[in-house]
Amino acid sequence: MKADVVVMGAGYAGLAAAEAVQAQGRSVVVVEARDRVGGRTRTDVMDDGLWLDIGGQWVGPGQDRLYDLARRMGREVWPSHTKGKSVLHFGGKRSEYEGLIPKTLPPLALLNLAWGFKRLEWMARRVPVEAPWEARRAATLDQRTMGDWLRRNLPHPKARAMMQVAIEAVFAMHPDEISLLHGLFYLHSGEGLENLTNSAGGAQQDRVAGGMQGLAEAWTERLVEGGVELMLEAPVRVVEQDEVGVVVHTDKGVVRGEYGICTLPPATTLDVEFRPGMPERRRAWCEGMRPGQVIKCFAVYERPFWRVRGLSGEAVGDQGPVHVSFDGTPPEIEEGVLVGFFEGRAATRWADETVERRQEAVVAAFARFFGDQALTPVRYVDHVWPQEEWSKGCYAGVAGPGVVTTVGKSAREPFGRVRWAGTETAIRWSGYIEGAIRSGTRAAEEIADV
Ligand SMILES: Cc1cc2nc3c(=O)[nH]c(=O)nc-3n(C[C@H](O)[C@H](O)[C@H](O)COP(=O)(O)OP(=O)(O)OC[C@H]3O[C@@H](n4cnc5c(N)ncnc54)[C@H](O)[C@@H]3O)c2cc1C
Prior knowledge:
alpha/beta, FAD/NAD(P)-binding domain, Polyamine Oxidase, Chain A, domain 2, Guanine Nucleotide Dissociation Inhibitor, domain 1, seven-stranded mixed β-sheet, five-stranded parallel β-sheet, about 35% helix, about 25% strand, binds flavin-adenine dinucleotide
């Protein structure tokens, strides 16, 4: 098979790249390992029609490409349910609060936490998102971890524990494993910690009707109608290139093109054999971008019983293994859905447990937040993302200490006739669907005039 451009991966980055290449009047083949499009977004439809976004689900202000895509595909966007109070369960005590920061924390913890939020926002704004390695004192920031920063700046144990919950919710990784420079870049890229942890007015504000995989499928249909060719169940194994083109070897055959756009997550890019070999610094970057670890969990109840009690379904707790919850109920159903996450080390620890044991732990956490009614869901579903062969984790790759300043630049550096995309390469909204879309468009622009 032959095309002007071969796009590797049919997640949002790959689809955005395909669309932009097609708009240049060039032919495109998209090769995808899975038997579906959407990558780290996935929507499972239950036998009774209930759909659950097992992967990426939210969209919020500033994510213009994603809102625009939903509009173009005729998909309704609706707000997450956030009406009512949130719950804090800390040190064995339960309280209810309004707003982002729980005012029910002891005053000193509250002061320390509010200061910590502001300080991180301030530091993040000083890291240039296009080139974080050029930040002032980049090398020092890159040698430290977010965990070091927490210990130095949040002496109050409750403030530190709360901030750790917030960081793990955003990165799906323990703060001790995240380079402080990368963390600050990521926060700036997503318009700040407050924005990333907020629902109304923040990154968890809205949902797309029918789910995020449905949106990717509708987009794919449109692209295929326009002439894009899609090969599913075609894992890329080898990418050869010379001065005139690329040859992409997949399990379904060989595709030749003038250019290749690789949108694979860093962790699965490492399994592809490049001939000639991928530049050493790019390989080191892929190795250094370790995928976050998440098990996403859903407990479905006959009714959203927490709403009757004036609760939003949002909760934060220090006990674990599930530290946060959200109301994930689609508007068209009578049942209520609570969503929770095992993140970072908790996800690693619980990945090999039985689903029954995980369910027990999740509903126990929900019961601490919302009362004993949470113990008896009509349905429980979860998904262990680190065990997905073609993702190896999520939400995204996260840089450990030293990665950004030594090899960070190589993330987007062209490699002969191969261009790099994928949410980890994004400047804005890195780690998010929006970042994936922007990265795909950017990679296609890089070959627009050649
Ligand atoms: C549980 C979870 C919750 C999330 N929540 C949100 C959220 O609420 N909002 C948000 O914006 N983002 C969220 N994210 C992150 C978001 O889903 C990702 O940032 C985004 O989907 C990444 O898109 P991508 O195209 O860069 O990568 P991917 O979606 O990973 O696409 C890469 C594609 O390449 C394919 N591939 C991999 N290896 C090969 C190979 N060797 N050959 C061929 N194909 C290959 C994969 O199958 C995949 O389809 C979440 C992710 C998860 C998993």
